[in-house]
Each structure stands twice: as C-alpha cells, then as structure tokens.
Amino acid sequence: MREGTDAPTEGPRLASSSRVTQRPSPRADPAESRLPKLNHIYTTFRELARSQVKADGTSPDHASSPTACEAGGGGAEDVHKPKRTWTERWVMGVSVAGVVVSGLVLVIVLFPLLTRKSAPAPTPASPNIPANVVRLQPDSPNEDTISPGERIVLADKDVFLEGRKSSGLMEDFDAGPETEEIRKFYKYMAENIKGAMNRSSDPCQDFYEYACGNWHNHQPPPKGVSRWSNFEAMTITIWELMEDQLKRAASSGIIEGSAQDIASEEEFQDPLGRVHQALLEDADPFMLELAGRYYAACEDETQLSKLGAAPLQEVLRIMDEQYRSLSQKVKPLEAFQRMLEHAHHELAVHAFFSWKVEVDNSVANSMAIEISAPSLDLIPQGTKVEGNEELISVYQQYASDLLKMVGTYDGREVDAEVEDILAMLKVYQPLSGSPLVNDTTVQELEEIAPFLGWQNFFNKGFNQLGIFVSEKERILSLVQEYLAVLSNNILQEISQEGSAHRLYTFLRWQVAQNYAQYLHKPARNTILPLFDGITGENTTGLSHFRYRPCIKELEERLALPIAYLLKEIIKGQLHKNHDIKEMVNKVTHMAENIREEYKRFISSFQWLKDKDKNKLVEKLNNVKILVGYPPVLDNVFQLRNTFKELRFTRDNLLQNQINLLKFNQRRKMQFLRQPETYTEWEVLSPMSLISFYVYRRNALLVPLGGFMYPLYSSHIPEPLTYATMGVFISHELGHSIDFVGRTRDALGRANATLWDESTVADFVERVLCRVNEYSEKHYTINGLLTIAEVMADDGSVVNAYQTTRAQLQRTKFPGQLENLMDHLSLTPDQLFFLYYAQLFCTTSPDGTPAKGVEHYPPHSVRVTATLTKSSAFHSAYQCRLGSGMNPDSKSCDIW
Fold it and tell me: At 693, is the secondary structure helix, strand, or coil?
C-alpha cells in the first residue's frame, strides 16, 4: 500500500489553474476508502460459522498458510545438505543481528511453548467446535494426517508469535506434547502446500496456476462473496479475535454494565474454531470500557430496534429547524454556507468536499489543511450517473426506502425529494479530484470557489479549539479544479431557483445516509441492493450481514484504543519471560536487512548516474522504519489523557458515532498548530495486516496486525518469513523510489529537482516502456497508482530473496517440510518462491482467480508478472528461455 489517489477515469475534463504549483499527491487515509472491502466477507463468514451447516462437502474455514510447490518440467534437482556438527547448526541459526548464542537458547526457545497460557485443546469430537468453521484440507488416508481437532489446536498455537526468536532451525527433540504439536503443525503446513497446488501444471508456463490451481477446492470461499484470499481470511480472524475478547470481558464483568448488551444468543464461536482464554483482565479499565461501551451499543439489536429511526429523525429535525429559520433571515447562499458548516463541524459529515489537517507537502515537520473530494456516497466520486439507468433505478429505490423511515424536509412527498436528490447526484457525482497537490491559500480559495466564505468556514470549527485561520493560511488542495466547477454549479443553482432548497435537500440526504448505518436493521439494510449492484455481491439474503460491522467501526474510528487492546491480547498469549518488544525487534531487524539489500540493488542500476544513485541510497537510509504500534500504546496515562473527553452511552449508537467522529476530527485539527504531536500511525491502524509507506514522511509502517499466520509466524522457518512479510516490506520500500517517491527528498518533502532533466527523461521512458509491456502481456494499467504498485512489485521479491539467499542454503528445515521437499523434488530456493506465490492465492465462487482490488492488479497477475522478470526464479526452476515464465522478448526494466 502507499499514498495517492488515482486520477478519475470518467467525468468532465476540468480547466487547469495556473495560479498554483502542482505536485504529485499522497494517498488518502486508508480508513477513508470509498468502497467497503471486507465488511461483507466478514459478516458472511460469521453467519456461516454460526449456522454450523456444512454445504457440498466443504467447510468455510481459515485460509491456509502460504505454501510451496513441486518443481516440474525441468525443475532443479534436490539439494542434499551435508551433516553438520551440533555447534555448526546452532551458529547457523543465530538471529540476523549476528548474536552468537549458547546452547541454553534451546531451553529459552522451548520454555514458552511448555508453559505458555493456553486453553485446553478441544478433542476432535468436541460438540463446541463445528467442523465447518475451520477451512482445512480434508483428511487424507495417510496414517499421519492431522485430525480436525488437532488442526484447531495448531491454529490456536500459531495465530501470533510466541515471543521467541526463531532461528530457522528445527530439531526433532522428544520434549513432550508441545513438541508433538509443533510437529503436527508442520504436517499441517506440508499438507496445505500440496493441497493448494495444481501439480499437473508446468511451473515454467503458468506459475500461479501451478502454485494455486487447487486453492479453490482447498480453500472454498464462503457463500455470498465474490473474492476470497488469505488476506480476507486473516482480517476476519483478527476481527473475530477482538470480538471474542470484548465479549469475554463483558461476560466477566470487566466492562461494567455491558454483559447483557454484548452477549450472544448462542456461545460465541471463533471462525477458526479456537478456544481463547480471557486475555484482557489486566488491560486498562478506561480503554476497555471505552471500546466495550461502543461495541455493546452497536451490537444491541434489541435497543436499536426499540429506538428505530428516532435518533436520526432528531438530528434531521434540528437541521430542518435551523435551515427553515436561516432561509427566512439571510440570503440563500449564506443559509447554505451556515448549514454546510453545521454538517462539517457539528456532525463531521463532509458533504460536497472533504478536508483534514495533513502533513505539509513541502515543509518538514509542518501541517496544513488539505481539501479533497467527498467520499460519503457508496458510488465513488467521479462516476458518471447520467445515462446509467440501472444505477439510477437502484439508487432511487434506496433513497425512497430510507426517506420513508427518517422523513423528508418539511413533510414533502418522498418521490419529489428523491427526484431532487437524483438531480443533484447527476450534477455533482461525476466531478472528481486530482492526483496533484495544489499549494494555495485561503484567500486564493475565495477567488477560485466564491460559493463559500472559506475563512469563515474554517474558523467556525477551528475557533472552538482556540485556533485562528487567516486568509494567508496554506491550503493543500487536491480539488482545485473541482472546486471551481462546484462553485459555478452552486451559484448557478441558487440564481436559477432563487433559493438553496435543492442544495439543502442534497446536504440533508448526505447526513441521513451517512448516519443510517447506526440505526436498527431495517434502516441499515436499505443500502444493500445498491451495495450488491455496485460490488456484484449477493448480501440481501444473508440475515447476519452488516454493511458496517461494529468491530470494523472500532478498528477504523477508535484505532488507538483498539490497537492497545490488541497489544494486550498478544501479551496475554506470551510467557511472562517474553514481551511483545521481542517480536517488534525481530521484524524491525528484518526490515533493516531488506533495506541494506535494496541499497545494493540500487547500486546495480546501469542506466542511473552515480550521483542519482547516491540520492536514492540517501533516501533509503532515511526511511523511518516503524514496526508494531505507536509508542503511546506503552504509556497508558498518556493514552487515557488523549481520550478522556470521549464518552459513549449504551443506549444510543448514533449519538456515540457523532461523538466519535467529532472527537477524531477535532483531535486531528489540533495538529495544525501542534505538528510535534502528529505521528505516522495516524494514517494506518496498527490492527492492519499489510505494511504501508508514507510518502510525506518517508516512513515505513509495519503494523501489529501483520504479526499473524500465515503472513508471519515464529513457527515458520525464518528464511521463509522473508517470502511473505519480507516481500511486503520490500514492496513498500520500493515506493520510496517510485515515480512519486523519487520527487521527494529524504524528509519526504516535495522536490522535483532531485534528478536532472536528462535522468528524468530516461526514467519516464523506462516507466512508459514497462507500462506498455505490462499492459500487453499481463494486465491493462489504468491509473498512476497502478503504475506505482507495479514498480514496487518489480523489486519486491528479488530483494527479499537476495536478503535471505545465503541463509536459505544453511537452514535445516523441519522434518515434515524436508520430507515434502524430497517428495516434490523442491530445493530451498524453489520453496521460497512458491511460499511467496501461495500467499497470493485468491479465488471466486466459480473458481476463477478474483479480480484486482482498486488500483492493484489481480493477485495472479502480480505473481506471474513479477516472477517472469526474476532471473533468480528462472534459475531456481530452470525455466528455459522462451517459456511462459521466461519469455524470449526484450524486457523493459526500470530497476
């Protein structure tokens, strides 16, 4: 992931403005994505877990680990490793920090496994573990096949790291039942390696098909979803884990007064079939109470049904009274501005445009107000609505159904109000922002978009925090041209209509649909037909589906308290002699190792001048590597102080949501005059899975949520963790030198003069060559962000592989993986590439590879396109020149 928003593919071309300097844009906050990504999969999966109904002989269980496949069609011979002495094996297994440890390390490594807190493992026959909850390979006739119950135990043991430093070595010590469970884990891992493969496919022709061709049968997607992968499964797992712990805390009385609200009708079942202990007994009561009260109010369908639409009706009633009074006292344009201020500052609903305090684009350690396109509607901004009759019909029904519940302005006929809403939608939805940042001021905005008194608008909110915004205040605008067109349309509307009634109707609608998701189920479900029409899902028949799941709201809107609780959960799984810092330090070391390899990679660029190479190396040297979570989570007093003004009740979810959104908005507004309090973690929840690069701060974030099997685990031999998490870290480091990253200096400031004109011209020519090559051979690239992802992919695998290449050859893999490698004639190098590929296994209900997500190419394309350019992969699998994975054609290499 990385910053930026793709240029719109539809919508009118807007005249450019010559009064501002344009610079490449960083991306929007991932928590503000326009379309839901995993919500429907999460609720679908949860429904299936509760139903405990097995369909078609398969089970909707957890995604397998990334796996390796056999070498076929000219694959390399097996590597037989010479016997080594006991001392040599231990020296070979030291950490990447290079610390040589003594033989006592064995005791330290095994001790947490022998003493770690864990619930008793359920037996295969346990009635509390539904067989369809866990997606595991069906039992084989082999006598050493793991039983479902044993697999459940192993899943429980390996969701998070155990706080020990894995050396990549594994001995077959007979040290008791825990060691036996580790052996069983590797059997499980080996079965998954074979289970996902299509061994009849030639890896040198279509490697993705070879690695993942049977993944659909091995990991069948839950009913009602169009996309299923390891990433969806991991996200669901971490959400369910958090829900489980919140419910346990409520039932034990830790969350005061919330037990009845959160309690399920039936015993809670983890989607992996795991049995968890209550792990939040020692968590800070205030943080736990804060998250628990919101979650309780969100999950209490009885109270939500009792309230019905009344909470939103009250919000709209107050708005209507204000507008009615204003329309009689002031001119239409002023009345519209006052209502727009109310929506933005009192309800945190950013209609017509959006804004936030963001890192300054060109001044180090400074913040500025950034304006962007609105993102309230399910239909992405920039979508042409006019002429799309199917979309209009579904949207019309959605608006009609919701307005019948919450009411219209002044008791108008629903059809008349819907007609006005659709008219406004056709005008404003096609307008979109720009991928370029415009440096401007409040005064210039007043000239460009005079529909609004911009200084008064901002001061209406900032003055409440003791902040004054002058006409000289710097503004970072991604919507300069959009605002000019928007302003012209609004002024023309008021001039023609003689009032702002239709504009207010549309503003009122944006508030209504934004907060309808915090009402009872009938109001929430009005959006489902529109959701299905846009996403291609089929959610209307799923009784437990929720467009905005409660745990997702907590993750996005209450990120720091929830991340704190996640940290406490992981701490509860660790032995007292270990702490979470060990995990963080190990992954940090991995990132530092990959950075060093990336610097060597840059030195190999033949087309780049030495002085330009030095600038890229300096940029990489200054990448701030942040792993795990922000430091504030270790200071509970500071964390309490941050959230001391935020309060939730158990009986009004919508008011809780308003309180939460206003609190978050005002907390971030204070960064404008207190830039030192801003941290890079503001752009990414620590519960997220995937690493993230922040252009404006030249920082790499590796969140705590990614410390999760199969993306990362201490049980996985250390070199293979570079094939999964290491590849993602390498990918994100690649963004520091992509076409946006190369225009920013070591501090993240925009500086388009880092390279001379001839170097830039050569670079652009190479990028265009790669875009054309990729589009012709793999996947049509449409948008700047997709180009950036392709560039980052190109260097990701090769650098992760080169970082651990020597260690791969020295590692003694567990016996079960060694046996698998012997059986499939796999070398350690082949295992690395295939372990990487199988993390990307993705499927859809019909068994075809799923489409890409937003600006990413499909997973199948990402694997194939990346490995076709890897000489190390060609060598590992001995793919002859001219084969599908080693095409006999000129390659367009950027790096």
Answer: strand
Q: Are 624 and 618 in contact (CB under 8 A)?
A: no
Contacts of 353 (CB under 8 A, 6+ apart): 371, 372, 373, 374, 479, 482, 483, 486
Strand-pair partners of 701: 626, 692
Q: CB–CB of 355/445 below 8 Å?
A: no
In 3D space, the residue among 318, 343, 338 whose CA is nearest the CA of residue 327 turns out to be 338
> 751 pLDDT exceeds 90?
no
Residues 715 and 182: beta-carbon distance below 8 Å: yes
SS3 category, 362: coil
pTM over 0.85? The answer is no
CA 656 and chain centroid, separation: 24
Alpha-carbon distance of 830 to 501, in angstroms, equals 66
Distance set, CA 349 to CA 291, 464, 643, 658 (Å)? 22, 17, 21, 9
User: Would you say 154 and 185 are in contact if contact means Cβ atoms under 8 Å apart?
Assistant: yes
Q: Which residue has 């009385």 as its token pair?
A: 253
Tell me: the pLDDT tens digits for 462-508?
999 999 999 999 999 999 999 999 999 999 999 999 999 999 999 99
Cα distance between residue 625 and residue 732, in whole Å: 11
The Cα 876–Cα 872 span in angstroms is: 6
**And the tokens for 356?**
């936030």
**CA Rg, the chain, in Å?**
28
SS3 label, residue 492: helix
Amino acid at position 150, single letter: E
pLDDT in tens, 315-337: 999 999 999 999 999 999 999 99
